[in-house]
Design goal:
Elements: E1 12-13, H1 27-36, H2 52-68, E2 72-76, H3 89-101, E3 105-111, H4 117-120, E4 132-137, H5 140-151, E5 157-162, E6 180-184, E7 194-195, H6 196-209, E8 213-217, E9 222-224, E10 227-228, E11 250-252, H7 258-261, H8 267-274, E12 278-280
Parallel strand pairs: 1-2, 2-3, 3-4, 4-5, 5-6, 6-8, 7-9
Antiparallel strand pairs: 9-10, 11-12
């Protein structure tokens, strides 16, 4: 969990557990191995659960956000997948209860398993919780397969995370239906190249469709044409060194509507009201 985080598009991170089915070159698995010398990743691997003190932290963030009268974004879950089918369902239910209590926090649920979501959402999901954004991580093949699943689930924000990007990705027919795109290159040991023309193509698509895009990092091996850029920060995160046209960090312009604040299901009208409106970081 992070009361403070280096992830630029959120204020906090919260993990209802650690571990998930294994993905290729998973940064979370590598951190887990480095810190705890044990595996919580992969089929049938034990998940790491947390106590009550840990679960009380978001309540503090919610109080602070309320006192400041500004919303805070929580990345859930940076070291797990909310829609992991090998997790105790009671822990996931506890997460939904926590999200309902923290109405000053926007919970950003990133998943590679959006197909599991319909069976794992809270019973009162209805038209979507007003403080939950659903984002699925995709490459081109996964975008074609998973974005229809994502869009079939009511949510105030439907987004895609194209990070790390390892090849060109086109949003195509899905562009007008999305409300957010996150994009970055790969970082860390053994990083693969990130070509800036890939992210420029995404920016162009997003601009045409009116979608906010957040360019998070240029990765450890950013290329401008055939030339590798040599940046001071290993992950390509030094903003001052970036090409001017890629200094783009935008968010969907959403927040609790008056209906949601009164406890009324906002649902589709709320999504339509805010669709394709962007705010600068």
């Amino acid at each position: 969990m992070g009361a403070v985080t280096k992830i630029e598009w959120c204020h906090h991170t919260f993990n209802p557990w650690w571990g998930c089915p294994l993905c290729d070159r998973c940064y979370a698995m590598m951190l887990d191995t480095r810190w705890f010398k044990r595996a919580h990743w992969g089929p049938r691997a034990p998940r790491r659960y947390f106590g009550d003190a840990y679960w009380r932290e978001p309540l503090k963030w919610d109080c602070l956000a309320g006192a400041e009268r500004r919303r805070r974004r929580v990345f859930c879950a940076s070291m797990a997948d909310v829609f992991d089918n090998e997790v105790d369902p009671a822990v996931r239910d506890r997460l939904w209860r926590l999200i309902r209590r923290t109405r000053n926090l926007d919970w950003l649920l990133l998943t590679k398993r959006i197909g599991n979501a319909p069976e794992m959402l809270a019973n009162d999901w209805g038209g979507g919780y007003p403080n939950v954004w659903l984002v699925t991580s995709v490459n081109q093949a996964e975008l074609e397969r998973d974005v229809p699943k994502l869009l079939s689930i009511p949510a105030v924000v439907h987004g895609v995370s194209i990070e790390p990007q390892l090849a060109p990705v086109r949003l195509g027919r899905f562009a007008p239906l999305l409300q957010w795109v996150i994009n970055s290159g790969e970082s860390g040991a053994g990083s693969r190249p990130f070509h800036l023309e890939w992210t420029r193509a995404l920016v162009t698509e997003c601009r045409s469709a009116g979608i906010p895009i957040f360019v998070q990092r240029l990765g450890s091996k950013p290329y401008e044409g055939a030339i590798r850029l040599r940046l001071n920060e290993y992950a390509g995160g030094d903003w001052s060194e970036w090409p001017d046209d890629l200094r783009i960090r935008e968010f969907p312009n959403v927040g609790l509507s008056s209906e949601a604040a009164a406890g009324v299901d906002a649902g589709a009208p709320y999504r339509q009201r805010h669709r394709n409106s962007g705010s600068r970081y």
